[in-house]
Amino acid sequence: MKKTWLVLLTALLMTTVLWGCGGKSSSSSQGETAVLDGGAGENATELSYWTFVELHGQHFEKMLQKWNEANPDRQIKLKVTVMPYDDMHNKLSIAVQTGVGAPDISDIELGKFPDFLKGTPQLEKLNDVIDPYRDTIVKSRVDIYSKDGDNYGIPTHVGASVAFYNTEILEQAGVDYKTIETWEDYKQAGILVYEKTGKYMGTADTSAGWQLSQLLAQQGKDFTDEAGNPVLNSEEMVKALTLLKDLQDNHVIATIAGGQPDTEEAYGEFNAGNYATAFMPLWQMSRYTNYMKDLSGKIAIAPIPVFEKGMPRSVGGGGTGTVVTKTAKDIQLAKDFLAFAKLSLDANKEIWNTLGFDPVNMDVWAMKDVTHNPDNQFIQYFVNNPFDVLNEIKDEIMMSKSVPASPTINNVLYTVTLNEIFEDGKDIKAALDDAQEQVEQDLKE
């Protein structure tokens, strides 16, 4: 099992930048494919699965084995293809529109999902296979992959945002991460870190909106209003970016190669100890264990600072909804397997064990034999236990909407606006006014 995925991972890392639950790829690679039998017999049905994250394939491989053991009369072989982010989504879009060449099962990243729900979705409704699990899973994480009350995607995680602190850098500056509760605390700690070590406390992100989403959620706002219309030049957005620009001006944060923490270039910067903090969804843990091995034993997890104490300290970030296409060779089999692989209690335990994601079945969060297993690679890597933090903030995890306007908003903000502010020094309100105008114009076309 591990050998199969080692070959795939090695090939992909030579040609592509792999982004997790909210990223892109700059490669034009056609991807790598492996057929997994999961102990299936000769009469097994072969289903195809596309993903842009090789770690997701590892999880499905584990669940395939369990499915085949539990379902001797409905055995499956899984043909897994791992492709770069943009390539996979573009290819999938064409395939479902034309009805030719689509996989049976596919991942779709949250930011792209609204594109696949336009008009009449060419995806199967999943209500019937989700229904048995509704009492145990986080409702909002299912709702974001829905249209008109129908569920079209099954989530992978909650994606609770947390702070990742490099304790080695902080200790060199005499800073205790546990004392950082507000953004003012963070600013003063960052000024001290820069003075004592020459390192930056954190990043000024230009190619992603993790930080903005977190800062808006603290103020009870989002990138869109209740009707799904863009509100990029709101007072709350100005306040969020003014805070970040002030941190940049005081050498607390700085732009980073790749534009945000979840890129191959940024992994190298963090691994070298040039930045002390990343504010990211919990799934960033897997990036640390896989791509920043030199930081093992140095990274602590904590709630994100807030403007004022009492504000919510987390927001669900990123996400991958896994779907069944209309052209699947055995639709019900694909749906049943998908629900088993991502929503069953066993699946949620494995999502934590294999991927380091916070499971959507929050019953797992209270299972100390799972969450505090000393043999778990994530428990071994980090300074403190991630679930101690998750359980502290579990009632404060806000949700960021994904609506039809979201892909357009993302394109403008993360290719133009944030670069104008953090790289070019453009006035924040002027940049946001321009972004609002551009998005509104693009949505009309």
Topology (SSEs and partners):
Elements: H1 2-13, E1 32-36, E2 45-51, H2 54-70, E3 76-82, H3 85-98, E4 105-109, H4 113-116, H5 127-130, H6 139-143, E5 146-147, E6 150-151, E7 161-166, H7 167-172, H8 183-197, E8 202-203, H9 210-218, H10 235-249, E9 253-254, H11 264-271, E10 277-281, H12 285-291, E11 299-302, E12 314-316, E13 320-324, H13 331-343, H14 345-355, H15 368-371, H16 377-381, H17 386-393, E14 397-399, H18 406-422, H19 428-444
Parallel strand pairs: 2-3, 2-4, 8-9, 12-14
Antiparallel strand pairs: 1-3, 4-13, 5-6, 7-10, 7-11
Helix pairs in contact: 1-2, 2-14, 13-14, 18-19
Structure commentary:
With 445 residues, this protein is an alpha/beta fold. The protein has 19 helices and 14 strands. It has a 5-stranded mixed sheet with strand order 1-3-2-4-13. A 3-stranded antiparallel sheet has the order 10-7-11. A two-stranded antiparallel ribbon has the order 5-6. The radius of gyration is 21 Å and the shape is globular. The protein starts with a helix and ends with a helix.
Short description:
The protein has helices spanning 2-13, 54-70, 85-98, 113-116, 127-130, 139-143, 167-172, 183-197, 210-218, 235-249, 264-271, 285-291, 331-343, 345-355, 368-371, 377-381, 386-393, 406-422, 428-444, and strands at residues 32-36, 45-51, 76-82, 105-109, 146-147, 150-151, 161-166, 202-203, 253-254, 277-281, 299-302, 314-316, 320-324, 397-399.
